[in-house]
């Protein structure tokens, strides 16, 4: 009975935390850092982990973009994307990786083993952030003692990983739209407006050739007298080159 009650309590806490993170995402859709900070804080707390971090793929490495907890990150702010690192292995293999005791896995994860000796952690779980079939990062949680994470906790971290992907992609798409909008508003040197201004300079036309009729300007030329004649069309947005 006590075990059942504890299970229900944990389930309720996880559902509440997930709802809270979704609220943060909806309120801070364009503040990706706020969302990622909320995710690592929730992951560490609900999974009873000593720390949690979100790492993003940058070139041929992983860069920490959010961290919460007691285990320091020291030189791991940027780590090479190699199989000897637990989060990198999760990214490369596109699957969750749990290591019960990193101190016994020196051959399999040499880089992580060396790092664990420096900062003091034993159990680690890494889940990839997957978008469109490709890993764009990973979420990592760790414990200072040997105590593997449960299936329920692994499932929860997978949920947080999905939410991190949503936040990162929303920000990326918004930035792309902003960049395209800025490009559309910028006119290159020699844009059509310059030639329009020059071609329609009234000073180059005889006064008696321009008139306003029915609210519309019309410029006429007396071809018989060799007056100026405007031909062709102006296409807004196209270069004259």
Q: In words, what does this structure look like?
A:
- The protein has helices at residues 2-27, 32-46, 86-93, 110-119, 151-185, 192-199; strands spanning 51-58, 61-69, 78-80, 97-99, 123-131, 134-143, 210-213, 216-219.
- With 241 residues, it is of the alpha+beta class.
- It has one domain: 2-Layer Sandwich (Beta-Lactamase), CATH 3.30.450.40.
- The radius of gyration is 31 Å and the shape is globular.
Task: Please give the structural blueprint.
Elements: H1 2-27, H2 32-46, E1 51-58, E2 61-69, E3 78-80, H3 86-93, E4 97-99, H4 110-119, E5 123-131, E6 134-143, H5 151-185, H6 192-199, E7 210-213, E8 216-219
Antiparallel strand pairs: 1-2, 1-6, 2-3, 4-5, 5-6, 7-8
**Number of strand segments:** 8
Number of domains: 1
Low-confidence stretches: 193-200, 207-241
What percent of the residues sit in helical stretches (DSSP H or I)? 40-55%
Number of discrete helical segments: 6
Structural class: alpha+beta
Write down the overall geometry: globular
> What distance separates the N and C termini?
81 Å
Portion in strands = 15-25%
Q: Looking at this structure, what is the CATH superfamily?
A: GAF domain
Give a quick account of the main beta sheet: strands, pairing sense, barrel closure: 6 strands, antiparallel
Strand order of the largest sheet: 3-2-1-6-5-4
Mean pLDDT: 79
Q: What top-tier CATH class fits best?
A: Alpha Beta
* Rg of Cα set: 31 Å
CATH architecture: 2-Layer Sandwich
């Amino acid at each position: 009975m006590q075990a059942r009650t504890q299970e229900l309590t944990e389930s309720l806490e996880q559902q509440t935390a997930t709802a809270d993170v979704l609220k943060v995402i909806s309120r801070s859709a364009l503040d990706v850092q706020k969302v990622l900070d909320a995710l690592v804080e929730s992951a560490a707390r609900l999974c009873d982990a000593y720390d949690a971090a979100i790492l993003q793929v940058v070139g041929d490495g992983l860069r920490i973009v959010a961290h919460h907890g007691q285990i320091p990150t020291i030189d791991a702010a940027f780590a090479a994307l190699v199989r000897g690192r637990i989060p990198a292995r999760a990214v490369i293999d596109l699957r969750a990786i749990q290591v019960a005791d990193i101190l016994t896995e020196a051959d399999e994860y040499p880089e992580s083993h060396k790092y664990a000796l420096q900062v003091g952690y034993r159990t680690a779980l890494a889940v990839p952030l997957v978008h469109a079939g490709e890993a764009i990062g990973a979420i990592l949680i760790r414990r200072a003692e040997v105590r593997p994470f449960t299936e329920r906790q692994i499932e929860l971290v997978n949920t947080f990983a999905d939410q991190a992907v949503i936040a990162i992609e929303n920000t990326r798409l918004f930035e792309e739209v902003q960049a395209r909008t800025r490009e559309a508003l910028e006119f290159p040197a020699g844009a059509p407006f310059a030639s329009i201004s020059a071609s329609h300079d009234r000073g180059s036309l005889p006064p008696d050739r321009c008139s306003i009729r029915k609210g519309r300007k019309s410029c006429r030329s007396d071809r018989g007298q060799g007056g100026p004649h405007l031909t062709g069309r102006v296409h807004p947005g196209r270069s004259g080159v």
